[in-house]
Amino acid sequence: KPEETKLAVQLKKQRVMPVKQRVVREKARPVNDADTKFQAFQAIRMARADARLIGQREKKAKQAAEDEKKPKKEK
């Protein structure tokens, strides 16, 4: 409604509604063998490579499935 729009006032406070961030804290635990052997940088690199190559791998798998369906030529 045009009358209500004219009566609207801009709020000029820094924060109209505060955004509360939830902090999830893990309980302390002893360091185990898997923790010491974990290589974070390598895991991130492998995840990025997997994400980048997913299309090529799907295409290759599809091509291999099609090649399996085709009868092989005998000599």
TrEMBL record:
<dbReference type="GO" id="GO:0005840">
    <property type="term" value="C:ribosome"/>
</dbReference>
<keyword id="KW-0687">Ribonucleoprotein</keyword>
<comment type="similarity">
    <text>Belongs to the eukaryotic ribosomal protein eL13 family.</text>
</comment>
<dbReference type="GO" id="GO:1990904">
    <property type="term" value="C:ribonucleoprotein complex"/>
</dbReference>
<feature type="region of interest" description="Disordered">
    <location>
        <begin position="54"/>
        <end position="75"/>
    </location>
</feature>
<protein>
    <recommendedName>
        <fullName>Large ribosomal subunit protein eL13</fullName>
    </recommendedName>
</protein>
<keyword id="KW-0689">Ribosomal protein</keyword>
